[in-house]
Task: structure prediction
Amino acid sequence: MKNNMTNLNTTSMLNSQHIRTEDRTLLNLNQFILLSVLSLGLYNIWWMFKTWRFFLQKDQLDIQPAFRAIFSIFFLYGLFERIQKYAQQQGYSKKFSSGWMFLGVMVFSYLSYLPAPYFILYICSVLFYIPAFMALNYAKRRTENMETIEQEKFTTTHIILMVFGVIIWLLLLLSIYLELTGQLQ
Result:
């Protein structure tokens, strides 16, 4: 009986304190899209990792966020569902279809196998992350006992990622140009 009382007191103490999560910095939508496009979609994997890590800490889950981000084909639908449930608990009234979003990400990701220059269409997969991104930001902003920080400027890591992304984009576009003009064989 005493052990149950201790557990109840510990639980109520945790609920009354700040939610201890590492990631409370929020990007705006334009920053998210820019990072996703410039990184050729790699930022989406980082965003999934950070989101899974947030839920790991918030809900005390027994998961491996990096594994779930890398193998997102198996876990992305569940992540979208978890985000929507969390957002609705915080009063988010918009709904999105996790199934359609997952399908959109998968279909556009597979467009990367198309021949040049059409394979660049796969970058549009970022559009299917937007509803979940917006819902998660909304929920984080409105969660009691959670302080969030609106990130107005890019971090040094973001800037480095964007510089490398621009270089890769330039090389990719040069390669497409050379291939289409017959100079690359």
